[in-house]
Amino acid sequence: DLQKYIGGYTYNPDEIVIYITRTNTGEHSTTGTIVSDDGIINGFSVELPRGTDSECMTRCPDNSKIPHNCYCIMEGTYNFEINTKKYDEGDTKNTSLRIISRVDNNRIGILVHGGRDDAKGWAKGCILPMPKKPIDNCVYGAENRNNSKDESISFVQHIIDWVHGRETEISMRTKKDIKSIPHKIVITKTF
Fold first, then answer.
1. What is the 3-state secondary structure (H, E, C) of 82-125?
2. pTM
3. Residue 26: what pLDDT?
């Protein structure tokens, strides 16, 4: 209850809301918590460094340079959907959510997909859910990680299954089409 109060979490049974609260940022990554509005989903998040507001509004360059020189998106409320796009076999983005709201400066294509504690090289501004508390500010390629790629992908699948379950429950109860049910990701920070 205290976490809900501090994070400003609310519960509307006719919406699907995921709260991401950034709690630490550094040169290599930003870490935080990820919680569903009904408390079923409880985990952690890893993103690229927070940077300045201006850097958070800058589009990530589309190149293959690793680690990527990007920043996480601005705090705010964003609409999302389950991503149905298919990528190369084994790509972590095959199991993902996609933010469909336009982010500042038309930054688009922000995904919530699997990865590891070392965000650089795994995310181009995307959000990486983790089942276990990640190492804060984990350096790219570091061996001391608390979450493997497979553990993170499984956790993302758990979130997707939860979304499907909520869609079905809300749709049956309200007789609404699934596409008309609000799907939101609310991002805040405590640092």
1. ECCCCCCCCCHHHCEEEECCCEHHHECCCEEECCCCCCECCECC
2. 0.93
3. 94
